[in-house]
Amino acid sequence: MVSEPADEEPEDLHVEDDETESVTSYERRPEHQRCLAEVFRMDSDELLRRLAVERYDQPGFIPAEVVVALARGRYGGGSARVRNAIALALNRQLIYELACFLEAFPAWYPVIARDSEQAADAVAEVRLRIFKSEAEVSFSEVTFRMFVVRRLLDWCKSQARDKNDMKSVDNLTASGEEAGQPSVAEELVDEGALALEDLVEREQRKELFSRSWPAVQALPQKQRTALILYVLQDMTYKEAGETMKLDESTVRWHVKSALKALKDGDWHE
Fold it and tell me: pTM, whole model, 2 decimals?
């Protein structure tokens, strides 16, 4: 059976239950409100430049709480470039927070690494919870990390309960591995047996992406951005090029280079 690891939540993590939280309107922190007001005064080019800043300690970084507010408010109007950049920034933050979550709660790693789609499903579940809220100001716009941790803990526990309800989960334990510590490599398709041109199909790209998400984070910035826009955001090469301000052919090259790096890399060893 897959038992739930003992996890200790931070003391300030206890807020309303999920249903109450989704309809309760909170108050944004003053610094987030000021940043949001600043965003509203920016033109599209400046906002796109700011959204491209990935590290919180770099000048111009827009906090995740503000990005959530923009995403929930469908900010950007008729500008697909702005809306796509907001979606990309939010997804980037969620992937980063998932990595932080695994560092803080390593006992849950076997649940998230159980198969190729778990990490992507976990991120998708948190994103769904963000947009499920009917509140004018959601909890995720107040304390993003706390919100993500709560949602990931809920998701992991539900996955563990689902597995415990199954008759057998023996196949989760890889040969030679400790019980409860499945080998990610054993879950993988033998990518070496696939010709590179076979990775053209979008679903195969998504599968490779989800299997190797830690390696995706280590890709060069342009390769990583092009891959996320094309695979996760379902953009065309042309749309991704407009967002990145690159030629369509250049984006195509970055995506293919990223896929080749993931296929040939040692992340699955």
Answer: 0.58
